[in-house]
Amino acid sequence: MATSVEEINHIRETLALQISEVEMLRSMYPTEDEFKVDEQVLADIQEFCSGRTNLEPNGLNFSLTISLLHGEFGEANRDRENMIEVSFYFPQEYPNRKPELFARSQDVNREAQRELNDELNSHLSSLERGELCTLSVIQWVQENGGIYIRRSQDDKLTTAESKLRENDHKTKKNGTFLRMWLYMHHIYSKTKRKDILQWACDYDLTGFCLPGKPGVVCLEGNEINVEEYFSRLRRLNWKKITCRHREKGDENLSIDDQRKFSGFDELFFEVHGTRENHMDMGQFLHYLEQHNLGDIFQILFGIEGKSSLNS
Q1: Which of 20, 25, 119, 143 lies most in the core, judged by the most C-beta atoms within 10 Å?
Q2: What does the longest C-alpha to C-alpha distance in the chain come to?
């Protein structure tokens, strides 16, 4: 915590640079699908920079969905396979301290994704200290991201025939849809949050992760994939992790037809509490209702919810 006026003013100067960079990104990526930011932390930063409070804000989380324009795929378009999402974390000292980055795409396999992130962070390390870096990161991803997508596609083609033979006799046994609801005492760790997102991609699962206290993870997809994911996840060190509910699908319908979500996202809602770690449950209920899953709120928390957006 700052102990002098000089230190507070220095923090305000660095945070003002972060606000300027966020405003620039909003103009470049105007839709919510392209740019998602923790609005509550951003508001706290603006309050602090304006001098209305001396309470130092938390670091800022946001994500960009970057189109690989004129890259490995030829003509510019916004198809799903030409997109890479990059999650950013700005510590309070940024740009004097490097941000934390994590890139992912539904069409990049685990090995290629690891290499993508290694190279991206190597590029980040090459930038001068104190330099605003998001434009450089965007440019690097646009120029190089297609390499890792194409590599993943080549790997799929190489193994496609053997996988088809292997999966053919398993279709009836393994083709059942399952939606699983997990409840954690809390989800704070950035490493765990990265694993939750990355493993969902590995197992072709859709749903979401709600970080904070409490934490909630929704998984949907092939029953065996969901169960393997859960078995892998609960081996991590948790204060508490339980499966609150399972929803078995209709065997006469395809797995994709029974999904409620099109991808796997980390949710951001307004936060409160002494550590600003409790998500707004009214907004979370509204999110569930938008996906026709409002009844699950009582199963997760044991109480009937009230949407803050409808009150």
Answers
A1: 25
A2: 70
